Task: inverse folding
């Protein structure tokens, strides 16, 4: 963070302004931000190639997660079918309950 950014008086990511109060349960009170103060905020944006690398990484991770979810959902469906078949076998007398 540059000195100009530090000296601007605008809170940055990871910093909590000293004048923010908290309520009884510890939640921060919200403050309004004027249009002029909003226009002075600095936003750090990675270069375009890095943005593409980040997007590709996230796309791959999301695809992996979607695949894992699909596998788990299929296992759930298989178990539901198995449960139905077991219930059917006991109800129709093809299997006996032994206590």
Result:
């Amino acid at each position: 963070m540059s000195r100009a950014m530090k000296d601007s008086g605008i809170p940055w990511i990871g910093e909590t302004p000293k004048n923010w109060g908290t309520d009884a349960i510890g939640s921060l009170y919200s403050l309004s931000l004027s249009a002029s103060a909003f226009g002075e905020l600095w936003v750090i944006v990675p270069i375009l190639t890095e943005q593409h690398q980040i997007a590709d990484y996230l796309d791959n991770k999301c695809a992996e997660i979607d695949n894992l979810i699909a596998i788990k959902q299929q296992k759930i469906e298989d178990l539901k079918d198995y449960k139905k078949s077991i219930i059917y076998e006991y109800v129709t007398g093809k299997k006996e309950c032994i206590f």
In short: The chain has three helices and no strands. The radius of gyration is 28 Å. The helical segments are 3-7, 35-39, 48-91.
